[in-house]
Design brief:
Distance between the termini of chain A: 66 Å
Number of helices of chain A: 17
Structural class of chain A: alpha/beta
CATH superfamily of the largest domain in chain A: Ribonuclease Z/Hydroxyacylglutathione hydrolase-like
Largest interface: A-B, 64 and 64 residues
Oligomer: homodimer
Largest sheet of chain A: 8 strands, mixed
Helix content of chain A: 25-40%
CATH class of the largest domain in chain A: Alpha Beta
Number of strands of chain A: 29
Strand content of chain A: 15-25%
CATH topology of the largest domain in chain A: Metallo-beta-lactamase, Chain A
Strand order of the largest sheet of chain A: 8-7-6-4-3-1-23-24
């Protein structure tokens, strides 16, 4: 039974779009040496995670096996791939983190922000260079996506070659960075690929993807024809798009200004690492207000309607001394990620109220996706000719559809959502075991578990309001004065048109008055009784049962 | 100055899609006799209105003038047009509510639910019948939409004829109810139209709208080809769609079952009012589980991912004894309203986990909109030839775009968001004044103002957690024991790895110990001090500043 095996285990990213974290292992069962591919975050929302800062995959499984981790490999610098590297570095046993120059630059910045050791991040050269990590030999193979130096990984193992695509699209002309190179990938596939672990994001998009470079003409024309100020937003990390936008501004004779910390950080990393060349000259945000509006082009963060980003600030009023007005144009060179619609629409309407013309991607002319569409996935399946295709980077519905697509192409399509440990050793991939997975929240500066009940309590207070009850008992276990009520997030008056707190206090007082000694000596019984009475009264008065906290003070007895 | 005038005033629905409420008036300024068109609701969301049940327009302006209200006219039975009629009926002075039979049936049900007087709802016959209401004569003119007996209103006034389209599309074959009848509308336009108050929802949709009847072939084919159980969801009020789906089920030899209270209520109203004929025979939900799955078709509520609706229940597990599994098909014969994406996607993934094939509207084959698209709006502008076009039923960006479109057609396009009172008396429409508008929440059974701070407090607790502090002072204003802390929605431990409440209590105790008599005799000063200390300590420990409630108990002095 203790023969060695090759395993694949997604801890995040397979069953959601976000917080990617994949593990590969080789060795005797329970003694596999491990490598980790990507360690990303996902973003909170008010519905399920109010007040949370970031969401991480739960890596308890890895933490327990930290002594077996050889290294971490990061495919590219998007937050859902690199965002948790620094937060988790210590928990993983401080392994070496390998990434190509641009990604490493971003990862080092994150390490520095958290006071971690930047030297743990190692800059990797692209294929044919490789990195030995225990039983694995890993190469970073350039592939096109929507951020520079994205790489697929070639992972050579004692059981054969694996390809982990990372996020990708097939772009022959990506404006910045390396194009999709089918010949290179054909060579990589030549020895035979055991398993292809493959991006699933756009499996439902029926048409071939479009190149990043196809956007320049339409964007250039739009900027050319604008009269007032021209403002564009896009994903800060899409350096190619920012370049296309900036060049359109330059061609129209406008001064170009980047606004938003994330965007300036990305451009800086691009320049520092030599990825980005010939970027048009830009002016500083503090100088923008001096430029006549018809000569100004802003490129700003906040394409997803984020409340604190530059777009939202400009929609609300002045930002860096600049205020948009009738005759100005605002371009969303981006798509709205599902769930962000309300925020984006809010901004669009705020601009509309100012008389600003908003242009979005509904025409299809101003944005292309960074992921491979359905026919592109089929192209890659064919090119790689892997025995097994394991879809990743997708919600469950994407993985399932992608597995079926792979099956149609003749491969074994393997549905392996988070926690599914797949044994890849033999001819046929099979499930080895199921591992418990989940989420961890960064709440303020503290990491809390998704199931700790903390966020659940916050959601309940948001839905139901919070009622606080105070009672004091004297040395003889007799109530001292009446119970006292405080409300937060509840109407002041209900059905009987007198203050809700008074109505509840009267009922609580009655309860205390009637309570027998065996209740009054027992805090749990008092609490239970007061809670029940308070909730009943509230239900009658306002049609809601609030969350209740009871505080019982006993004078030293 | 006191010559009579004709006014239009939107109190809701112009600047949002939802809670429609429009007012028309004629008379001397400040003495106009008024009619109200529609009185709808909008739905809450976790981002801005957690825990709220329904959102109503703020009708303070109308309430103050209730003695001048002649009547209410309801164009159709969608919640955003009829949902607040019963809640507001008394506040409006209990006016007559006019609606066509189907809409009246729904409105009476709502009155009954709230214990109101059903007899206040009057069933109106369609045009050429009219209703006199003070200086106005109002006719209900059939128009196609996505619910039966939708009507545009012809409002004859001493200053000329107005047309209020209500929600509409140009459908020559709407499956249920009256088709779009251009000749009828041409006759109505013949005397000349002073102002066209017009639906703006789909002004950004560039192609002509499609007929409801165009869907039957594709839906019929899909049901025909399904192997396991077939489940479809759509908007409960779209009776035509429900009929198309039911007929497809019948044609495939399946027993048809409607699930979800709202859907059964709508079909019932359709049958009761004679609007719906020849609806296929259905089986009761409690009998569905006995039918072999390949012979069963469910039509269910919950197309928007609503947590308690039938779709969500089926996605989670058993519902009415039925559980979906691999081989079954689930059809969304609906579009996802912006903001509902997360809920809908959650359901899709839950079905995917069960192996159910989910079909959505991405192909365009299984849903058509109920609103007029851009070229349809142009058709109506031309046909009506109104002097003024006032866009309504849209967000600000829709109204603005629609006004511009009307201007291109030669009319005066008038941008009039909520609160803009327009004077229509003269040749040129102009703004008469701005009226304060807003929202009112139904929270439990209580109506609260959007600006009361109640919901704001709930949002703050959801984001920041809630910390409760208790101190007791004795007769001499000296602290009795130490301050006491309770946490809700906050991590139990922070940076120093001891319970957060203990760390805070220690700092609070120190504050109390140092406080001078002039602080200890002043509840406000104690509260301010404790709050400040607690928030500082929390910020240091957990990186968050919670909401704080301080309760000070003084033993009777």
């Amino acid at each position: 039974m203790s023969s060695e095996r090759l395993i694949y285990l997604p801890l995040g990213g397979a069953g959601e779009i976000g917080m990617n974290a994949y593990v590969y292992g080789w060795g005797a069962p329970g003694k596999e040496r491990l490598i980790v591919v990507d360690m990303g975050v996902t973003f909170p929302d008010m519905d399920t995670t109010p007040g949370v800062g970031l969401i991480f995959p739960d890596i308890a499984w890895l933490e327990e096996r930290r002594d077996r981790i050889e290294a971490v490999f990061v495919t590219h610098a998007h937050e859902d791939h690199v965002g948790a590297v620094a937060h988790y570095h210590e928990k993983l046993g401080a392994p070496l983190v390998h990434a190509r120059a641009f990604t490493a630059n971003i990862a080092r910045g994150k390490m520095a922000d958290l006071g971690g050791d930047e030297r743990a991040v190692h800059t990797a050269d692209p294929w044919p260079e490789t990195i030995a990590a225990g039983p694995f030999t890993v190469g970073f193979v350039p592939i096109s996506h929507s951020i520079p130096e994205t790489s697929g990984l070639v992972i050579d193992t004692p059981a054969g070659r694996l390809v982990h695509t990372g996020d990708f699209k097939l772009d022959p002309a990506p404006v910045v960075g390396e194009p999709w190179d089918p010949e290179l990938w054909e060579k990589i596939a030549a020895p035979g690929i055991k398993a292809l672990v493959c991006d699933s994001t756009n499996v439902f998009s029926p048409h071939e993807g479009r190149s990043e470079s196809s956007l320049a003409p339409a964007i250039t024309r739009l900027v050319q024809e604008a009269r007032g100020m021209f403002v564009a937003t896009t994903f800060a990390s899409n350096i190619a798009r920012v370049k296309t936008l900036a060049e359109a501004g330059q061609a129209a004779g406008r001064s170009v200004c980047l606004m938003g910390r994330a965007m300036r950080r990305m451009i800086e990393a691009g320049v520092e690492t030599g990825v980005l060349r010939d970027f048009p000259r830009t002016i500083a945000p503090e100088d923008a207000a001096q430029i006549p509006r018809e000569n100004l082009m802003l490129i700003v963060t906040g394409s997803q309607g984020e409340r604190r980003a530059a777009s939202a600030q400009l929609a609300q009023g002045k930002y860096n001394g600049i205020e948009l007005k009738a005759g100005d144009t605002f371009l969303f060179s981006s798509k709205t990620i599902p769930g962000n619609e309300r925020g984006v629409i809010r901004i669009m309407n705020q601009f509309s109220e100012k008389g600003v013309d908003v242009v979005d991607d509904s025409s299809g002319d101003y944005h292309v996706s960074g992921h491979a569409n359905r026919p592109d996935l089929q192209t890659v399946h064919r090119l790689m000719g892997a025995d097994v295709v394991i879809p990743m980077h997708g919600e469950h519905r994407h993985l399932r559809e992608h597995a079926a697509l792979a099956g149609q192409g003749g491969a074994q399509g393997m549905l392996a959502p988070n926690g599914t440990m797949v044994d890849l050793t033999g001819d046929h991939a099979q499930v080895a075991e199921y591992v418990e997975t989940g989420r961890t929240y960064l709440d303020g500066t503290v990491q809390i578990g998704a199931l700790d009940g903390i966020v659940r309590d916050r959601i309940r207070m948001a839905l139901n309001g919070h009622l606080m009850i105070n009672v004091i008992l004297d040395e003889d276990d007799e109530p001292l004065g009446e119970p006292w009520c405080d409300l937060m997030g509840l109407p002041e008056t209900g059905q009987s048109r007198v203050p809700l707190s008074e109505v509840i206090e009267a009922d609580l007082d009655q309860f205390m008055g009637r309570a027998k000694a065996r209740v009054l000596t027992d805090d749990d019984k008092i609490e239970e009784g007061l809670r029940r009475v308070a909730r009943q009264t509230a239900q009658r008065e306002i049609g809601k049962k609030p969350e209740v906290t009871v505080v019982i003070s006993r004078l030293s007895g």
